[in-house]
Every structure is written in structure tokens, then in C-alpha cells.
Amino acid sequence: MTSARLLRVGLSTTTAEPALTGGRLDGLGVYSRALLDHLPGAGVEVLPFSFAPPGDARRLTLGRALPLSFPLATLGDLMLPASVHLNASRVLGKGAAPLDLFHATDYRIVRMDCPVVATLHDALPISHPEWASPKLRGLKNWLQIKAARKARHVITGSRFSIRELVECFGVDEGRISVVHHGVGAHWLDAPPAGQRDATLAQHGLRAGYFLFVGTLQPRKNVGRLLQAYLALPPVLRSKHQLVIVGAPGWRSEELVAQIKTAQQNGENVVWLDRLTDDAQLRHLYAGAGAFVFPSLHEGFGLPLVEAFASGVPVACSGTTSLPEVAQGAALEFDPLSVAEMTAAMTTLARDDTIRARCIGAGRRRALELTWDEAARRTAAVYHEVLSH
Q1: Per CATH, the architecture of 7-182+371-386 is what?
Q2: pLDDT value of position 2
Q3: CA dihedral of residues 308, 313, 319, 325 (deg, nearest 10)
Q4: Which residue numbers delimit the Glycosyl transferase family domain (predicted)?
């Protein structure tokens, strides 16, 4: 391999494949899609691959199907000798150049006939089993531990996550690189006011609301956010809606009931559980008066950067990876303290000086956290792996 030739990298796009996701991307899907779009600008020839359900390979639209489904590949991984590898290059066609490297963007990784880099975002099912579904917890733990051990190198989104990967998965810290996630350049440009206003009107919103974005699940701590909002003075609640954007997740039944009760009581609470349009999501950020992110645990926390790029002042938890991502650009609070959360929301609603400081610092931080920069750093990891 010479430096003049583009690296030829197979990229796992299972989490971003429309035929498998229905077009609704979670954080893993956003990450995979961003690498697919931005790695070519970093000097990488990207070939997308997906683990497809048996018999459904023809439905794939984003990339090619790997030779085996993930369950079959995993079964072969367990039963076959260590010298036997999944031939990812086989699906490229006769005479095609082989892959230099394969990048698995989540825990679905098996032995390959080329070096493997794996992105592991956190060790949540092991570090905090109370926040993971018991139905899948044991399987995901086992798969992630195997992935960590099979990969030649591991990428993670924050320095905070390194400690978890070392303690929970036994990964050698020398095999881990931190590559912060980012936003696309278009996030830094305000959407047309007319389009933004049309989206807000469609959903019954008035500009200046408190916004949260994320799946409704225990670690996102939305129940305390709702309590903090309801503890605001009535004059602030009447002026500023609380807008919650996110699909219901595991153990969200009680929270959903609390949201509906607040709505029935005439509170200014709006829940958008089916928003899948990226343009509309940008419009919702642009219309917010403040973004509040009370999560108890994040391996990175991409919505924080989306809010920074959108010019919205941010209040967030001062825990796990979030202070590392914010770098002082957000008001931080103890996510277990409803009173602290209410105080931060009050400050962002009333103090124009602090609002302006947070907006400016957030924009500067967003300029440092772009997908172009993430792609360059990821390509540098590839080169480092292949040089050893």
C-alpha cells in the first residue's frame, strides 16, 4: 500500500440502512451515515456493507449485503477455527481490489479477512445494567466484549468512555482512540425563517420554548426535566413551552403517563414522538429558546452539539461525557437535582447576558466538532492501524 492510493475501507452501515431502520436513525445510525458521507473527503474510498436478514439482501439500498447474516456469522465465529475469517471482499466481485480495513460502527463485528476497527460508544449494559433492557442485556454484553477483543483497534467518542471500555470490556487502553462526533456544516447555517415558522406552526409551537431531544428511556432523565419545568414560575411556563422530541423507549410507560397528565392539566407541554424528518428537527432546534439535556449517562451526547450549532443556549448534566463535549459552553447542573435544573432553566429564560455567552461559546465549540473533522481523525486511525 502506498500513501498515494486511497484507503479502501469497508464500513458497516447496518444501523443506517433504510430497509432495516425504516428511515428512523438513532445515534448509531447518524454516526454510520456521517462517516459514509464524510470519509471520502478525508481520502478514503468507502464501501458500505450491511448485515441483512436472511433472504432480504435485495432490499438493501445503502450498501451491499455481507456474505452472511449476523446470527450466522456469529455462529460460525464460535464454531470455526480462529484461522477462518468472513471474506467480506468476496462480495466485491471477481478481480476487485481487496479491502484494506473494515470498520464496524457498532457491536456487530465478526472475524474478517482484513484488519478490523470497531467503534464502541459505551459500556452501558455492564456499567449500568439498571438502564438496559434485561431482554437484550446479556446478549449485548457478550457481543460487545467479543467485539472489543476481536478488533485490532477501538474508536470511542469521548475520553470518559475509555475508562468504561477498559474496566468493563478489558480493552487495552493503548488500543483505543478518541474521535469526537460532530455535526454537518449545514447545521451552522440558520434554516430559512419561513420554513422554520411553518414547522413550528404545524406542531403548534411558539418560538422560545425549552427543548429536549432524545429517546424516552430511564437514563435520559426526562421525568426530572418535566418536574423541573413544572416547578418554574407560572409566568415562565405560560411564556415558554416544554417541547420533548423523542420516541418512547424501554420503561417509558410511567413517563408517558406523566406527560399526558401534564397536558390534561393545561400545562404547556408538547411531546413529538414521531418526528423523523431531519429538516424539521433543525427547524425545531432553531426555534428553541433553550436546550435542556438532563441525561444521566452519555458516551458523547450528539444533541448537545446540534444545539450549539443551531445557536441555542444549552443547560446540561455535569456528568459522564457531557462536560468534555461542552467544554464550558453550557450551564451545568446535577441531573439528580430538580432544583438545580429549574434554576438553570430560569437563568436561560431570564438572563440575557448569560444567554449570549452560552450562545457564543456554543457556536465556537460546534465549529470544533464537525463530521469533517471526525472523518479526518478516523482516517488517521486507519493509517495508524495499517502502519503497525
Answers
A1: 3-Layer(aba) Sandwich (3.40)
A2: 44
A3: 20
A4: 209-364
Domain with CATH 3.40.50.2000 in the chain: 7-182+371-386, 185-368
Element (H, E) at 161: helix 159-169
Q: Which amino acid, 88?
A: A
3-state class of 9 per DSSP? strand
**Alpha helices, DSSP H only, in 240-301?**
253-264, 278-286
What is the C-alpha separation between 329 and 338, in angstroms, rounded?
A: 21
Per-residue pLDDT tens over the stretch 305-320: 999 999 999 999 999 9
CATH architecture of 185-368: 3-Layer(aba) Sandwich (3.40)
Q: What is the DSSP letter of 288?
A: E
Q: Is residue 61 within 8 Å of 88, Cβ to Cβ? A: no
- Alpha-carbon distance of 132 to 140, in angstroms, equals 10
